[in-house]
C-alpha cells in the first residue's frame, strides 16, 4: 500500500477502469462534450473523465455594495478557474450558497461518465482509489492556496503557473508545458486579477525567462530554473 | 451509506474514535501543544486533532525579482493561513518545493495523535471515514478558491469570512461566530492582502452590518443577512 500518492501514480489508469467504462456505457452513463460546453453535473454524483480534460470553475455570488453611488455593481458573477481534471481522474460538484461550482469540457471530444456513490459498493477497491485521488487533489489545492496568499500579484501568478505545469505539464524541448491553452482571463480569474494585468505580468515573466510560451500558445516552465539576478 | 457528508456529520466523532485514542496513547503517538506552538508534522504521516484546534499555514518560496534596484526583496517567506482543523478531524502535511505546509496549535491545550497510513489497515472503516473527511475538506477548499478568484479585496474578504464561519462557527446571540480569534494579519495572509487593508475593510463590513465582532474579538455573521441598500 502506498501512503502518499505521487502524481504519476494517480495518473495511472485505475485497475478496474475498463470494467467501469463498460458498466457506464451499458447504463447510458457516458457522454461526450465539445470544447467549452458546460457539463450538466449535479452535486451528490461522482464524475470521471474518460477522455480529454475538464475545467472546473467556481462562482461566488458575494458582492459588497460599493459606497460610491456612481460605481455600478456588476450583476455578472465572477467565475474563478479552479483547475483541470484530466483523463482517469474524478471530480464532483459542490453547491453551497452563495457559491456554485461548474464543469466545462476544456478540449474537444471530452468524455465523462458518472455514477452514484452507492454504485461503487461493488467496487470497494475502486472507491478507495477515487477517495485517494480526491485526497491528492486536496493536497494540491492547499499548495494552490499557499501561493494565492502572497501579496504581490506577480508572485501569485508565477506560483500558480508553477503548480499547474507541475501537475499537468508534459515534457517538451524547452521544459514542461501545459498540454492545453489557458487564456489570460482564466488565469486572472484564478489569482484574483484581471486579464490586462495578467498579460502585462506574463510579459515580465517571459523577459526574465521564468516562463516561455511555445507554439499553440502553451505555457511552459524552463527545465532548469536558475536563480535570477535582478540587475542582469 | 451517506454519499455527501454534511458539516455536522463530519464533526460527529468517529465511531472507533476511543479505540484509536487508546491505541495512540499506548504507542506514545499523542502530544499536547501550547497556543501557537509549531506541531512537528511530517509528510507521509496522518494526524488527528484530539482536542483544541490546529491552524494550517502554507509557505510559498516563490518571489519574482523586482525590476527596481531600490526595492529590496523580502527574504522572509510569506505564510498563508490555510484554515483550521478542529477536534475529531484529520490533517496531513504536503511538501512540494517551493511550497511547504506547517501546522500550529491555534489554541491552548491542543492535542494531536499521529499514525502511519498502514496503521489503519486494521480499521478499514475508520480509514474510509478519514478519506471522506479529506474529501469534504477538498470540497471546502474549492469554495474557498472560488472566492479568492474575486477581483475586489472586500469581496474576497467577505467570502472568506462567510466560508470560515459557515464551517467552524458556533451559534451565539447575534448569529454565528468563529470559536477562536483570528488576527487581521492572518486573514490578510489568506486572501492575498495586508493587515492594514484587512483592518480598513473589516470596518466597512461592520458599518454595513455584514459582520460583527463579539467579545473576545470573535468574528460573527448575523443570522439574517438582509440585502443591503448601498444608499441607506
TrEMBL record, chains A, B:
Residue span, HTH crp-type domain: 151-225
A Pfam family the protein falls into: HTH_Crp_2
Record-linked Gene3D superfamilies: Winged helix-like DNA-binding domain superfamily/Winged helix DNA-binding domain
Name of protein: Crp/Fnr family transcriptional regulator
